[in-house]
Specification:
Largest sheet: 5 strands, parallel
CATH topology: Rossmann fold
CATH class: Alpha Beta
CATH architecture: 3-Layer(aba) Sandwich
Number of helices: 5
Distance between the termini: 14 Å
Bound molecules: ligand CA2
Shape: globular
Helix content: 25-40%
Structural class: alpha/beta
CATH superfamily: Dehydroquinase, class II
Number of strands: 5
Radius of gyration: 14 Å
Length: 141
């Protein structure tokens, strides 16, 4: 069974609870349960969320040498964290970067990602469906 881990960064624990006009009304936990079921015959999908940069880097080091596919939405750290970009560059596991909103249609400071250069793929603006597309891509790679 293919191992896939979804890693969400800061504030993504608030999905479905705040700013529904940008991020939708579904909680990630609810969406994640459905995603796990949908792929249960082909992938073992786990989920990790942290609001702390170093904790996310530790998680990438922990899973990034296991061969597991990684779906990463680093939240606001995407646009600020050289260290997170370095961590993605340092691990052999494939990383697909996901953003729920279309970061290119938002404020200019959201247009740059420190992660994209090292990601196998980048999916933006597809809502929570972006995570599904990322899982499908990792399975087809
Ligand atoms: O669109 C995305 O997925 C983002 O990674 C979300 C980040 C934002 O800083 C990035 O520019 C784009 C913010 C996550 C905040 O999530 C919230 C969810 C619900 C309510 C409030 C914040």
């Amino acid at each position: 069974m293919t191992e896939i881990i979804i890693i969400n960064g800061p504030n993504l624990n608030l999905l479905g609870k705040r700013e529904p006009e940008i991020y939708g009304t579904n909680t990630f936990e609810n969406f994640f349960g459905l995603l796990q079921k949908e792929f249960s015959n082909v992938a073992n999908i786990s989920y990790f969320q942290s609001n702390h940069e170093g904790v996310i880097i530790d998680k990438l080091h922990e899973v990034g040498f296991s061969g597991a596919g990684i779906v990463l939405n680093a939240g606001g750290l995407t646009h600020t964290s050289v260290a997170l970009g370095d961590a993605v560059a340092a691990i052999p596991s494939p990383v697909v970067e996901v953003h729920i909103s279309n970061i290119h249609a938002r404020e200019p400071f959201r247009h740059h990602s420190y992660i994209s250069k090292y990601a196998k793929g980048v999916i933006v603006g597809c809502g929570l469906n972006g995570y599904r597309l990322a899982v499908m891509h990792l399975l087809q790679m």
